[in-house]
Amino acid sequence: MKKLRDRIQEKLNDKILHDTLKNFASSYKVSRDSAFKGLDFEALRRQVNSLKELSRMDVEDLFHQFKENVEEHGTQVYRAQDGTDANNYILDVCKKHSAEYIVKSKSMTSEEIKLNDALEAGGVQPVETDLGEYILQVSKDHPSHMVMPAIHQTRGQVCDIFTEHFGKEICPDIEEMVGVVRHYLRDYYFKAGVGITGANVAVASTGTIGIVTNEGNARLCTTLPPVHIVLLGYEKLVRNFEEAMKVLRVLPKSATGQIISTYVTWIKGRNPSFKSEDGLKETHYVFLDNGRLEYLEHPTLKEALKCIRCGSCANICPAYEMIGGHVFGHIYIGAIGLIFTALFHGEQAAREILNLCLSCKACSHNCPAGIDLQHLIGELKLFFGGKFGVSPLKKAVYSSVLAKPTVFRGLMGVGSVIQTPFITKNRKHLRLPLPEKRAFQIPPSVKRPTFTDLARGQTGATSAATSRVFFYPGCAVEYFYPNMGIALMDLLGRAGVRVDIPRISGCCGLPATFGGDRKSAEKIIHTTLNYMGHPDDYDAYLVLCPSCGVAIVEQFENFAKKDHVLEEKAKKIAAKTKSLSTFLEASAVKFRAGGNKKVTYHTPCHLGRGLKTTAEQYLSQLLGERFVPLKDTDVCCGFAGSYSVDFPGISSGILGKKIEHIKETGADMVVTDCPGCIMQIDGGVLNNDLPIKVLHLSDFLANLEIVRD
């Protein structure tokens, strides 16, 4: 872990990398939204996910259909069990043709098996022809993105690399640099004995492959050398052209924000070759297994093989934007890279980097193949936690504190006393003697009395109640922000809603789940469910912390399966769980907002992408011109629970960008729906001496007048 932290710090200190990735992240979102404009993205990704829903038997059938179709044209098909097998086969083909050089187009599958290293060790010189891959080859670097491998390099850095490599001064002009490389590579297309490419799709019904590029180099690799080797995984197989076009419709839009790539090359059979005796190119298809076929039988991880290699999970990842793909990945990059590392490159390579995931769900929300990437990462964390265990400290917290609400309450009571020397005058925050890297954190003080202490005996409206709800406060409201819960009870009471609360407030289990401790999470959730009343008695279950809401909706039923009664209870509660604004809108509760203060709104990750709602439009309609939209409102603030403690540098960097956008609004107030986000953003506001209030939606609305019909 220390080595990982050192690598993280190195990248956080790289200002050029920071600026490059920041600019890309901003421009990508604009381009991507423009490319999908007028299209139903959700419908498109459901289509891709559905067509990729293949069992091992399905894939075997498609493979044999593809094999039969291509072999009719005299091509050769080889099934490689693993990377070594694939490398040996490809090297044998190269040696058979006495190939001194081979030309390659970009292929992440070749990176997966370290094909270049194997070829060089065998006396064959691979020449990368994709510009980004070529830059990395001559600088002895490796990709930091699946689609844009040299995204971490600036124009100036590439200029220096080329000047040293070519032994002459190269002008830092993009057209000139491209021209120099194009001229240099041209001879290698003719000298190469073999051309190697991947494939974006392989159409079983016709034996056709499709290759998507922006530079045209793949076409030269497939046409000029006398031998063409196609290296691909079984997951590239599709049934027919209709399915292939569905994949290609979303691929470039998600990868680079282009409506369509510059080149889409279709190859069936054997291309002509003036270098071959029979006038046709010798063609080999090497299908790589490397665990793929076995994973197609896994009930959860098989979903990862629906990936179309667009790289969009990295494009929208806040952590990737901070540290890049040389840390946020192993060979494959981004969220899918964390998963593929576990699948293809072993547990030791994956265990640490899996923790870099913020669990913000942006990757799942944006995946054009409809893969719930964050869920897969969570499942892998639980698997590794079960196999290798979690840290003794975290284990103790999960199993001996969070799983025992009375013990938790007692310890927080002790904390409320111990904190006295560090508490601020307003008693809201703690000023702790933190090291510089954690100075951005200004934690809230532990409050006494707690929320349940304050709320005991209060139920809001009683005899005149129009509805009855159960409010689940969670740990943050219970111990740090009881005012939020009291505000909710006050405003709902004025609206004629009866509010019940748990007799003892328990944890939602999410910390243990994300920490990889399945046993403790199960124990915590079982305990909490027993304090959540009977779902038939309530119109809704309300949460002020969307992370608690996500736990209830996505985790409770799964972790309660050993107890049928609790499982059914969890299922009913999940169906009734709502955010405050969703409930207020459904109940037609209206407010009158006066004053002249400008307000902006941050959408918490687990609200927008977990509970699939936001109060942004709600506030906009309520406040009119006083509401100022926040750029990237739904991008993570960097808190993510213990993540801000485990990776303070990444957390601080993400927060810095959020604070920049808040400042740009000129707002007097930031409203959000998550106590964790308030904790993070409030610290950023205080550290930057900004005259901005940070409020939960419940606190904001509690100060407004309810409009009676």
Walk me through what this model shows.
- With 709 residues, this protein is an alpha/beta fold.
- The chain is built from 35 helices and 19 strands.
- The strands form 5 sheets. Strands 1-10-7-4-2-3 form a 6-stranded parallel beta sheet, sandwiched between helices. It has a 4-stranded mixed beta sheet with strand order 8-5-6-9, sandwiched between helices.
- It is elongated.
- The chain starts with a helix and ends with a strand.
- The mean pLDDT is 94.
Main features:
709 residues, alpha/beta, Rossmann fold, Fumarate Reductase Iron-sulfur Protein, Chain B, domain 2, six-stranded parallel β-sheet, four-stranded mixed β-sheet, 35 helices
